[in-house]
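Suppose you are handed only these lines of text.
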Amino acid sequence: MNKLTIDDIDLTGKRALVRVDFNVPIEGGKVTDDTRLVASIPTIQKLVQSGARVILMSHLGRPKGGPDPKYSLRPVAERLSKLMGLPVKFANDCIGPTAQEAAGNLKNGELLLLENLRFHPQEEKNDLGFAKELASLGEIYINDAFGTAHRAHASTEGVTRFIQPAVAGYLMKKELDYLGMALEDPVRPFVAILGGAKISGKIDVISNLLDKVDTLLIGGGMAFTFFKARGYNIGKSLLEEDKISEASNIMMLAESRKSELILPIDVVVTPDLNDPNSSTEIVSAAGIKGEMIGVDIGPRTIDAFLEHINSAGTVIWNGPMGVFENPRFAQGTFAIAQGLVSATDRGCITIVGGGDSAAAVAKAGLAEKISHVSTGGGASLEFLEGKTLPGVAALNNKGGNR
Ligand code: AMP
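From them, the structure of the protein bound to adenosine monophosphate can be written out as follows.
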C-alpha cells in the first residue's frame, strides 16, 4: 500500500481526528455485535500508547437529517470503554462548541467519541463548511473506516482538504494490503468465488476479475440468469431478465480470456421457498423441472468448487452460494466457508469480501480462521471493480502528497 500510515507520523500530544466505522447494531441501548469496534482497537491502542489525544468520529445507521436518539453513538462509547479498559468521553455533537470544548480539554492518551456524523445532512453531501468544522477539532487526520471509504463524505474526503497529514490507520492498511495484493500480485492460482442474489451489483466485479483470476466460480442466485442465457429452464429461480444478454457476453468474454468461468453443475431446488416443510431435490443445472426454485448449489458443485479452492494460492469470496439464511439451503455456503478454512491452513491466502459472505463465515464461527475478512461490503466490491475509493485517494501517498 502506497499510503502513509500512523506509523509514519508524529502522534505524541497531537489531537488526532480519527474516522472509524462504528456503524454497529444496537438494541435496547446496547451494542449487539462489536466486531467493528474490535477491528478498530489496534489503531486506537497505538494512538493512546503514543500519547495522542484521540477524537473518534463515525456514522451510525441512516438518521433522517437530524438528531435521533435511536441512532446515538452513546452506547458505543460505553462498549468501547469496556473493550479498551479506559474511559471514553462522549460529545453530544460532532461539531460546534460542545465538540470543540470536549476536544480541547483532552489530555495525552485520552479518548473522545463524537455524536453521529449523520445527524448533520452536510456529512453525506461532503459539505466543505462542515468538513472544515470537523477538521478544526484535530491536528492530524486518520482514516480507519474502510467500510465507508467508497463514499466521498465530509468525514472521509472533504476533511482532508483542511487537515494534514491525512494517513491510514491499521485496519485501513490491512484491508488495502489484502485486497490490493489480490488484484495486483496474487499468489497463483488465483480463484474468485462470487455469489449472492444478483448479477446487477456485481457485473463490474466480474469483468474486472476476469482479467486477473485463473478461475471464477459463480454460485448463488446470480447463477440462474447465466443458466437462462444458456437456454436452460430455471423454473421460478431468481432471474434478472434484463441481464440475460450481459450474462451471455460475460460467458463469451471468459472464453476469450485465459480465465475459466465455472457455473454450478447441480443445484438444490424446492417448490416453495417459504414453506419450512417443503421438499427439496438435487438436480443437474440443466434439469430444473417446471416451476421449481433453485436455492443452493448441489453436492457435485461443492466438490468441484472445493477442488479449485484446494489448489489455489489466493482465494477471494464474495456472496453466499444459496439462501443461507435458511439452514436447509445453507450447505453450499458453509461448505465453501469450511473450504476456505482448510485452504488457509495449508498456506493459501483467503479473503472474504464483507456483507453476507462475511456474515456467513461469522455465523459458522470461522472468521478467525480466514486470512482476512473485510469489514466493508460495498467498499470491497468497489475496490474489486478496480475503482479508486475517494476516502483512500484523499490520504497522503508515501514519498509525496496525494
Ligand atoms: P448479495 O447482497 O447480492 O450478496 O446477496 C445476498 C443474498 O443472496 C442473500 O440474502 C441470499 O439469501 C441471497 N441468495 C443467494 N442465493 C440465492 C438463490 N439461489 N435464490 C435467491 N436468493 C439467493
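What can we learn from it? The longest strand covers residues 15-19. The pocket of adenosine monophosphate is lined by residues 196-198, 201, 220-221, 238, 294-295, 319-320, 322-325, 355-356 (CB under 6 Å).
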